[in-house]
Amino acid sequence: MSSAAGAGEPSSSSRPGKEREEGADDSNRKVEDEGDLGLELYGAEAGWVEARTSCPHLLAMPAASADDLARVPAPDSQCSRCHHPSENWLCLICKDVLCSRFINKHMLYHYQESDHCIALSFSDLSVWCFACDSYLDAQSILELRPVYEVAHLLKFGERPPFRSLEVLDLCNGQNGGSSSSS
Ligand SMILES: [Zn+2]
Ligand SMILES: [Zn+2]
Ligand SMILES: [Zn+2]
């Protein structure tokens, strides 16, 4: 009495013929021929983004002390030479305020005369090094942070939102004392 059950169907798990998954990769290539308008936009944007995170001329800056930072003038200070009223540059070496290359070029002349090459724009708080011919990243360069922060405070009435700062961790220490149960 043995029921010979279980004689199931023969399992046909082996499928012949693999399917090709995605063989058509030449459909993506068409998009690149859009003309040179896209290229121009990309170029301008790349020039702006490339802010240096280091600069050998930072050594010329005075050490950031409370005394030195107190010399940072109001962002609406006028050019010390031609008295142009707005969008001037602050020389970070001597804290002189001078107008841009689009006005009377006094900051540029100042660099050529005195070799003071690092300046902060009071229009957007970007930092430019004339010697490097490049923007400097005020958020990632430690030497620039104090003066950038003071300028931001003077211009906007609040401190800049820095990315990740040890200084901020120190400030947050006042919250750390609370002992949570669970
Ligand atoms: Zn000027
Ligand atoms: Zn100067
Ligand atoms: Zn430089």
From TrEMBL:
Low complexity: bias regions: 1-15
Start-end of Basic and acidic residues biased regions: 16-32
Residues of the UBP-type domain: 53-157
SMART domains tied to this protein: ZnF_UBP
Matches recorded under Pfam families: zf-UBP
Keyword Membrane attributed: no
Entry keyword annotation includes Metal-binding: yes
Keywords: Metal-binding, Zinc, Zinc-finger
GO molecular function, one term: zinc ion binding
Family annotation (PANTHER family): HISTONE DEACETYLASE-LIKE PROTEIN (PTHR47665:SF1)
Protein name: UBP-type domain-containing protein
Provenance organism: Hordeum vulgare subsp. vulgare (Domesticated barley)
